[in-house]
Amino acid sequence: MPKTPQDRVRSEALRRAWLFSTTSVVAAGLVAAASAVIHPAQAGAVGRTAGDPHASAAAVPTTAAAALIVGGTTFSTMDPAAMAELTTTFATTLISVPYPAQLWPYTPGEYLGASVAAGVNSVIGLLGATYSVGSHLIVWGISQGALVLNATQQVLAGNPSAPPPHALTFVRVADPASAIGGMLNFLPDLVLREVLRFDMRTAPADSPWDNLVITNQYDAFADFPDRPTVVSVLNAIAGLFTRHGQTATADLGTVPATNITVSVNSLGATTTTYLVPSPFLPLTQPLRDAGVPTEVVDRLDGWLRPLVDAGYSRTGQPDSDSVPAAAPRTRTAAARRAATAAGRATADIPSRTRSARITPAASRVSSRSTAVKNILPRSTPTRAKELSCTK
C-alpha cells in the first residue's frame, strides 16, 4: 500500500525525534544511570599474561587474496572509488557486500536486527563464492558493517564447512559492539530489543578467527566513556561527526605502541586492537572550523581534556589511551559487563522485521549448521536464502 503524505510527515517526525532522543538519552540518561547500568560485581576473566607468545604480536595482516567490504548504515553497497579510499583492507581486490544497511527509525526500512541478519546472509554467500582452499580473505566492516562481521562469526563458528581459522581475518572498524567502549554495551535492554530489535550487545569473545579492531579515540559509537561524565559524553557525541566515519581511513602506522593491545582467546585466536589517538577534542572542533585562533582553542583543549579523559578508566595518564601490547590488561567494569553479556545465551542474532519477531538465530544452532553446510565449494542462492531474515 503506497504511503500517504501524512505517513511521510509522520515518518520524518519520528526520525527527527529519534535523533533528538539519541543525544538527550545518551547525554543525560546514561550519565544519571551509569551506576545502575555498570555493575562491577559482574566478573569476567579474559586477558593475557606477560608470557603469552601472542602478547607482543601486534602485527597487521599480510596482504590477502581479496577483501569483502561491508559498509555502515545507509551504505548498502560501496562503489570502487569509495573502497579505494579505505586504508585497512590489506588487499587489492575489494568486493562490496550488498545488504540493507538500514536502521529504522533513523532510516526508512528495516530495524537494525533484520538489516544485520541480511548482511550475514550476504557475507556467507560471498564467502562461498570467493574463498578457495589455501587462500586468505579479509572480511572488513565499519559501524553497522562491523556488527555484521560479529554476527557472521557467530554463525560460522563450530561449522566444519566454514573456512579454517587461518583463512579469514575480520577487520572491525568503529565497532559499536567493541568489548569496552562500544555504545551497545551501555544501552538498556529495552532499547536494544524494542527499538533496535537487536540482541547482540558485544562482539563474540571466542571466535576462532583473528580479529583486528580499529577505533578512533572519542568516537561515541566505538569509544563511549565507560565511566561517563557530562563533559566526556558531550565530547563523544561530538566525535560522532568528526571521529566515527573517519576511522575508515585511519593510518595504523601512526598509532603509538601504548595504544595497541593484543589478546588471545580460549580458541587461540588473536584480537589486536588499535586506538587511534585524537590530536584535538571533538568538542572544540567547531571553534577551529569557525576560525578561532589555534592557540586559543589549544588552551581550551588543554583545560578540557583532563575532564574528558576522566570518563575513561583507561587513562592512567593524560594521553595514554591504552596499555602496552606486552603488558597485562585489567578489565574495566564495562568490559566485565560486556563479557558477561556476551555469554548470555550465546548472544542471539535477531532476525525480526517491524511487523513481527522472529526466533533469534542463537536459539537455532541446528538450523545454522544446515544453513552454512557445504559453504565450500560455492554456496548456492538457495543456501544464501536460508540465512536471510524472514520477511
Q: Please identify the structural class as seen in this structure.
A: alpha/beta
Shape: globular
Query: Mean pLDDT, nearest integer?
Result: 75
Radius of gyration: 20 Å
DSSP strand tally: 7
Oligomeric form of this entry? single chain
Runs in which pLDDT lies below 50 for 5 or more consecutive residues are 5-58, 317-336, 338-391
Domain count: the total is 1
Largest beta-sheet details: 7 strands, mixed
Distance between the termini: 16 Å
Helix and strand run: HHEHEHEHEHEHEEHHHHH
What layout of secondary structure does this protein have?
Elements: H1 5-32, H2 34-37, E1 66-70, H3 80-84, E2 94-96, H4 112-130, E3 137-142, H5 144-156, E4 168-173, H6 189-195, E5 210-216, H7 230-244, E6 260-264, E7 270-276, H8 285-289, H9 294-309, H10 333-342, H11 365-372, H12 381-387
Parallel strand pairs: 1-2, 1-3, 3-4, 4-5, 5-7
Antiparallel strand pairs: 6-7
Helix pairs in contact: 1-7, 4-5, 4-12, 7-9
Descriptive account of the structure:
By secondary structure, this protein is an alpha/beta fold. The chain has one domain. The protein has helices spanning 5-32, 34-37, 80-84, 112-130, 144-156, 189-195, 230-244, 285-289, 294-309, 333-342, 365-372, 381-387, and strands spanning 66-70, 94-96, 137-142, 168-173, 210-216, 260-264, 270-276. The chain has a 7-stranded mixed sheet with strand order 2-1-3-4-5-7-6. Helix 1 (5-32) crosses helix 7. It is globular and about 60 Å long.
